[in-house]
Amino acid sequence: MNTSLYVYYRVNDDSRAQRLRQWRALAAxxxxxxxxxxxxxxxxxxxxxxxxxxxxxFAPAYHAVLAALDPDGDWRASRHEExxxxxxxxxxxxx
Length: 95
Fold this sequence. Notes:
Blueprint: E1 3-10, H1 16-29, E2 36-40, E3 43-54, H2 58-69, H3 74-78, E4 80-85
Antiparallel strand pairs: 1-3, 1-4, 2-3
Helix pairs in contact: 1-2
């Protein structure tokens, strides 16, 4: 079963540079999972990370890297994780 992780959170002028550094380090550490970062079309302060089609063993690795990059826990506290799975009625994606 395919699982994808979506993580959203807000940044502000005080946290933007730090969050961007953390995101770049997180993305580099998890590059094999092809992470992407987007922002809301109408609100550049709301960021979304996307980890498509990850395996069951992704979550522990993701959380370990995240904890290492966020020793004070502020970034983790602001993040909202949404885990999605494919449904039986999803059309097959052509390869």
